[in-house]
Design brief:
The protein has five helices and six strands; from the N terminus they run βαβββααββαα. The model has no long low-confidence stretch (mean pLDDT about 80). By secondary structure, the chain is an alpha/beta fold. The radius of gyration is 15 Å and the shape is globular. Helices cover about 40% and strands about 30% of the residues. α3 packs across α5. Strands 1, 2, 3, 4, 5 and 6 form a six-stranded mixed sheet that branches.
Length: about 140
């Protein structure tokens, strides 16, 4: 598993005015699941609302990820957080960056604990779903 940080910078003239005023940091997790291949999760959180973008390198994983969004939302909901947005993307050749963020790098960003909780719950839901899919195959 790989973990890295993305800085989201908004360009002047962007359509979402609130977003332009509030640049944010997103937590990114990458893993390789036997049945789905390379998967990435991009998470951002505001208060108790979570935005999630699962990324699949393999096209066959996209429908499977979409099927399991409700399981991910339920796992995130157990922590008191709410999945507000989930957009599954297919990015051929996706792989986590070779330079991941160190523990000291994470501390510099002062990411909210809720972001890590949401990431752990999303990973666990997908790991369990991928394992169940492998058992039935």
């Amino acid at each position: 598993m790989a973990l890295w940080i993305e800085q989201r910078r908004w360009v002047a003239g962007a359509p979402n005015r609130r977003a332009r005023r509030r640049p944010s940091t997103r937590l990114c997790l990458g893993l390789n699941l036997p049945t789905w291949g390379s998967i990435g999760l991009v998470l951002d959180v505001l208060d108790t609302q979570v935005g999630l973008t699962p990324i699949a390198a393999e096209a066959h994983a996209v429908p499977a990820l979409r099927t399991h969004v409700s399981a991910v939302a339920a796992r995130i909901g157990r922590t008191g957080l709410r999945l507000m947005r989930c957009h599954v993307r297919h990015v051929p050749g996706f792989a986590p960056p070779t330079q991941t963020t160190s523990a000291t790098g994470l501390a510099e960003h002062e990411l909210p604990l809720a972001l890590f909780r949401a990431g752990a719950e999303a990973l666990e839901a997908l790991r369990g779903s991928a394992g169940a899919a492998a058992d039935t195959a």
